[in-house]
Amino acid sequence: MPSLNCPVCGASVEVPNDALPGELFECGDCGAQLEYFMDEKNTASLKVAEEVAEDWGQ
Amino acid sequence: MNIGLSYDVVRFEEKALLQSINNLGHKPLPIHVVAREFWINEGNGLDADFIIQRCVSYNRAAATTAIFERSGYIVVNNTQVLRNSADKLLTSCLLARKNVPTPVTAIALNRETALKAARKIGFPVVVKPISGSWGRNIARAFDEQSLLDILELRENMPNPQMKIHYIQEHVDKPERDIRAFYVWGEVPVAIYRVSKNWKTNTALGGKAQPCPVTDELADLVIKAGDAVGGGVLGVDVLESREKGMLVNEVNGVVEFRNTVLVTGYDLPTKIVEKSVEVLKR
Ligand SMILES: Nc1ncnc2c1ncn2[C@@H]1O[C@H](COP(=O)(O)OP(=O)(O)OP(=O)(O)O)[C@@H](O)[C@H]1O
Ligand SMILES: [Zn+2]
């Protein structure tokens, strides 16, 4: 399992091998909601997850 | 088959659907819509036999479904069904046209007419945004003054759609409602959502419990699902003490995590299997 840095507090967060871009993880240290993200060079990182918007839901 | 899965956020549902696609021997093609460009005048290079739309954002779902369809792909659910279910006014009109029993509903375009309609319906009444989910901004008014207060708040909201007042009889239901699943004309599973809160949404803390799919329920849900155009839907049913089962609303990008958890029913596999069966023809 690769571990990535939390963009909020810097702690390392374990991410499973089969994680998908857009998948959400919680930082065990600071509790931030984080989104798994892949840039153009296919480098994985975590960014702060989007806030729930008005048009979210079923 | 190659089966696309259009998504923005990955939840239990998206993982489960990808897993089912794999388990059934098909090839999953995850499409993270926020991370890619879409070109209107060109194909978008997707090798998919059909695409399951799973965006949690309605606007992303609607936009990408339109583009996929424009490029010749079949999308579950299609643009029409997405709109019919996302817009409560449209849903109500379609259900009424097919004589599906629903709570008494009126639309009013200003406060005064809304008040008149509410008097005819009788208090309490429920006021809902035309589009919205998870119980957001749904209000219950027990008397004329509280209704006027709610309408004033609505009319001061920036979204002009909030000036279309959707007013409904309050259904005196047991402390629960029913969420039944419609999968291409079948009703494989249903749950109760039990809550002390009058809004029983699981997003607001309602607890899921298994609900038997009786003939009566299946019949009603099939009529409702057919009325909005079919596909894969969640149909919410209220049990009125006087009128029996009434269809409250229909959802076009369904959440089913709690359903799978409490019933053990493999709904994601049913959705993939049935979609393949219907669309391969
Ligand atoms: N007319 C009504 N009478 C009684 N209870 C109601 C009525 N309309 C809605 N409710 C309750 O409020 C909840 C939310 O209403 P509704 O399902 O219409 O909203 P929603 O925001 O579209 O929710 P969803 O997440 O299911 O899309 C319902 O699950 C039900 O428990
Ligand atoms: Zn952190």
Walkthrough of the structure:
Chain A: This is Sulfonate ABC transporter. The complex is a heterodimer of chains A (58) and B (281). Chain A has 58 residues and is mainly beta. Chain A has one domain (3-48): Single Sheet (Rubrerythrin, domain 2). Helices cover 0% and strands 34% of the residues of chain A. Chain A has no helices and five strands. Chain A has strands at residues 3-5, 12-14, 24-26, 33-38, 44-48. Chain B has helices at residues 12-23, 58-70, 79-86, 88-97, 111-121, 144-155, 215-228, 257-263, 267-279, and strands at 2-7, 27-32, 50-53, 75-76, 105-108, 125-128, 139-141, 165-169, 176-183, 190-194, 207-210, 232-240, 244-251. In chain B, helix 2 (58-70) packs antiparallel against helix 3 (79-86) and helix 4 (88-97) packs across helix 7. Chain B has 281 residues and is of the alpha+beta class. In chain B, the strands form three sheets. In chain B, strands 11-10-9-12-13 form a five-stranded antiparallel sheet. Helices cover 36% and strands 24% of the residues of chain B. The chains are: A mainly beta (58), B alpha+beta (281). At the A-B interface, loops of A face helix 1 of B. The structure holds adenosine-5'-triphosphate and zinc ion. Adenosine-5'-triphosphate binds at residues 103, 126, 128, 132-136, 138, 168, 170-171, 173, 177, 198-201, 203, 236, 238, 248-249, 251 of chain B.
